[in-house]
Amino acid sequence: MEASRHQDYKPGDQVVLNGWGVGETHWGGLAQKASLKGDWLVPLQAPFTPAQAMAIGTAGYTAMLCVIALERQGVTPEKGEVLVTGAAGGVGSVAVAVLAKLGYCVAASTGRPQEAEYLKSLGAAEIIDRNTLSAPGKPLAKERWAAAVDSVGSHTLANVCAQMRYGGVVAACGLAQGMDLPASVAPFILRGVTLAGVDSVYRPRDQRIEAWARLAQDLDVAKLAAITTTIGLSQVVETAGHLLAGQVRGRVVVDVNS
Predict the structure, then answer these.
(1) Which of 23, 131, 159, 223 has the fewest CB atoms found within 10 Å of its own CB?
(2) So what's the pLDDT on residue 176?
């Protein structure tokens, strides 16, 4: 913090910003300096360094919100397997690492078989081919998952819901496959499945602070190096193309000074 008119912050404070449209509808997402609303910020959570906080980023913070959503619905490791879709992406990678550290048996769904060892190194017990979930499926399938974190949407989310155990919970936070949800009400009215929507962009401040505190407690920072790739500002446009094509693993941190 270089200057502040906000009552909660003073020059010298270290802060984190996720969401609020910065980089989308508000300038400054890739700037060396930015003028921002103080209410958008939260204090940098010890023991994270600024570089580690950005390695976690919005994706990791969203993953933690998903884990908290599952916990609030009563999901515990004893309930059974937890599925993470889009597992090699940013949200998925952190979700796998956090859930594994908390003692859950994690199945990681990915369309990149070459990332199997990477996902196992984060704690995944099983690798699922995303093609088994991404095509149109049955309204109700064989029960398997106690819970799931989904960042894919569309047919994948519909199939995940159809495969949930009785009383299962799905935390949905993304739409990598699509914004549609071609599902039926069967899992919800016949198995009592809960679909918990997770927004990270406009999350209240107290919940943001809670998520970052939990990350400090439940994310093995030693795994951040494997999850993270650092690029220079000149590489952003090229990397964005790879990201949209589903070719980026984990998190990408932009060093705006290079």
Answers:
(1) 131
(2) 94
